[in-house]
Design a protein that fits this description.
This protein is mainly α. It has a domain of 126 residues. Helix content is 65%, strand content 4%. Strands 2-1-3-4-5-6 form a six-stranded mixed sheet, with helices on both faces. A hairpin with a 2-residue loop joins β5 and β6. α6 runs antiparallel to α7. The protein starts with a helix and ends in a 6-residue tail after the last strand. Keywords: Repeat, Transit peptide.
Length: 651
Amino acid sequence: MSGAVDASAAAVRRLLLTGVSPSNQLPPLTVKLLHGRLLRLDLLADLTPLLLRALSSSGLHLHALRVHSLLPNPSHLTFPFALKAASRLPDPHSAGVQLHGRSLKLPYHSTPHVLTSLLNLYAKCGLLHDAQKAFDEMPHPGTVSWTALITAYMDAGRVHEAVGVARKAFASGMRPDSFTAVRVLTACARVTDLVTGEAMWRAAEQEGIAGSMFVATAALDMYVKCGEMEKARAVFDRMQNKDAVAWGAMVGGYASNGHPREALELFFAMQAERMTPECYTVVGALSACTRLGALDLGRRAVAMLHWDEVLDNPVLGTALIDMFAKCGSTGEAWTVFQQMRKRDVIVWNAMILGLGMTGHEKIAFALVGQMEKSGMTLNDNTFIGLLCSCTHTGLVKDGRRYFRNMTQLYRISPRIEHYGCMVDLLSRAGLLEEAHQLIEDMPMQANAVVWGALLGGCKIHRNADLAEHVLKQLIQLEPWNSGNYVMLSNIYSNTGRWEDAAKLRMEMKASGVEKVPASSWVELAGKVHEFRVGDKSHPLSDKIYEKLDELGMEMKIMGYKPTTEVVMFDIEDEEKEHTLVHHSEKIAIAFSLLTTEPDETIRVTKNLRVCSDCHTAIKLISRITNREIIVRDNNRFHCFRDGHCSCNDYW
């Protein structure tokens, strides 16, 4: 008879072991039947830990707690399963407190297994103080206990404290496992703590767990979030098995850290590896296309997804609308917007901003009305789109009205971005004193963007005295930014103060500030071509310069004269008179004229502001060639057609 009992016990044990496997859980009814069989065979005492674990894994948490409550002598092996079952109840606190009270009467209360389970339960209840107390009772916490505490702080949103716990763990000599590494690296990524993150990665390498795809991906993401793209790429290149998440992290990292070319190269390399991109990977690729003005590449990227996926995903839809609008294809942006089946406020705002920055302010204003009629609530970003529309078209009265209504009617407190739009609007319109007063009255400290907007107005309206004051503020905020020095130098030169311009140049050199080289990009057949002032590195350079000379002759016949007032400050770059005709955007346009069909729109992206000479020249080139030329600089869009620009010379 005992042989039969032993065989039955072995069979039940095998089934219970199956029930605790995460990938092969037993149905609840089966576990209940096994419980009854254990009672009949009088084997409950021997197999209680396995039964409790199987009950909890099958979702029978109350059943598990009832079984545990009937045990005359619960052990340190059963308490963790009971606490785990309690933590999964809708209201875990009351059951947890009872279990905690019962555990205090037993000699094994201070074992790491029991205390770590208590820690997890209190963390689930949001009682971090009690979770920390449970941890502090452990004389020698192990890796699992340290990881549980780190996770508790992370889940509560107290990530800085989680990283602090990780530092203490390292100091105590903790040896991380792969789960610890992933948690710590994720926490460091969230708070951009490179020092602790790198310490964790080195420890992972020493423990031999750096080869785990999950650990390596977490390290990659940490480096990306900290802006260390070279180190992120080193981790990526070492990974043996790269999944879509790792590829997506790199593509998004390159895009968000100002490396759009690398982002697109990796995105299309991912395609060559037959790896299907996730939604956010495509968003990263679209962001890179937006930065480069690479419209065709953006179309290729989104073509990898099913169109229904785009229309049902507001994140993808927003990225696509933004890409089309900032690449100068407002019509395609509008088409996507109209077809979107799920439009949240972010989608609406993207379309309003896209219309505003491309000079379609009336449609943007009408869309806001339609947005309200549809029941959508305007938010602070909606008003940024409206104020941007006013800024690019000089609608001062409308801008003042929207800025006033935002606070008085919609009860939205202006952010610094709203003040920046208003300062830009007033400054462009020549209302420099009003703009300056607005900065002085702001409830927050003005940043470089706000002061830069006022400096831009000073340049347009040649107010050197105010510009000097503004530049002092800007040098304090960003002493490395050469653009501020160049702007003031332009103002000095425009007002004939050549000695002051030269002195400012000497100050700039003494401070070690170097001018950012101007670059322009055009896309052709899926490849982005970059040009700089006087660039002769391109294989078609000879033909490009022949085309520029040809255009120059025709422009002179039409009365064109180089705008020599832009020949100033940085004589080592685009400001030399003899290089006016060889500015990067002109080279890019000449290249496009040589390589595209006569009816194709030319699209150029520039990293700096288009100078007044180029603006005049491109208007004439659009008439000579009968081409539409869209130029996006770091300030706004210019759509040149038949000798006119969409900005109406207001930029």
